């Protein structure tokens, strides 16, 4: 899905740790940047109080998720630098609601289900087919959160 994207590559969630740690992702994003893709990574601000809520609800010791988010942000920031300005990394303040992975006209949606770790929640694939369908609604959600976010600066 992301390998063939020519317009949009979006990663949105708490930490998107799987993508941050995947050794194939830096090259995938560099290739997407070379194709002119709009690459956006949007993660939960590790300093936001929502991280403590996530730790509590997932049964983690307090302070577990924030370092994972910071590690992901550091990896994505390094990838952004390698993409020559074609990739933006932002953070948002607010409760986590969903993970969105977009490659052009396809989106993977993983809802944040309280008290359950993300790896144990369902993922749904949506395609852009209707003018006001679910794909469009999730794309709008991403855009609204992005518009209220800020660039990550460590």
From TrEMBL:
All residue ranges annotated as the DUF5919 domain in the record: 29-151
Which Pfam families does this entry report, sorted A to Z? DUF5919
Q: What is this protein called?
A: DUF5919 domain-containing protein
Species name: Streptomyces resistomycificus
Show the taxonomic lineage.
Bacteria, Bacillati, Actinomycetota, Actinomycetes, Kitasatosporales
């Amino acid at each position: 899905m992301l390998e063939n994207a020519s317009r949009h590559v979006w990663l949105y969630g708490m930490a998107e740790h799987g993508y941050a740690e995947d050794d194939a992702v830096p090259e995938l994003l560099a290739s997407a940047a070379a194709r002119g893709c709009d690459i956006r990574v949007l993660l939960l601000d590790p300093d936001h109080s929502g991280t403590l809520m996530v730790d509590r609800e997932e049964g983690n010791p307090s302070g577990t998720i924030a370092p994972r988010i910071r590690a992901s942000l550091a990896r994505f920031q390094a990838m952004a630098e390698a993409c020559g300005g074609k990739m933006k990394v932002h953070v948002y303040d607010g409760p986590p609601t969903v993970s969105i992975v977009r490659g052009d006209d396809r989106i993977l949606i993983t809802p944040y289900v309280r008290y359950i770790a993300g790896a144990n929640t369902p993922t749904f694939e949506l395609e852009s087919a209707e003018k006001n369908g679910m794909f469009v609604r999730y794309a709008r959600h991403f855009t609204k959160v992005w518009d209220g976010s800020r660039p990550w600066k460590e």
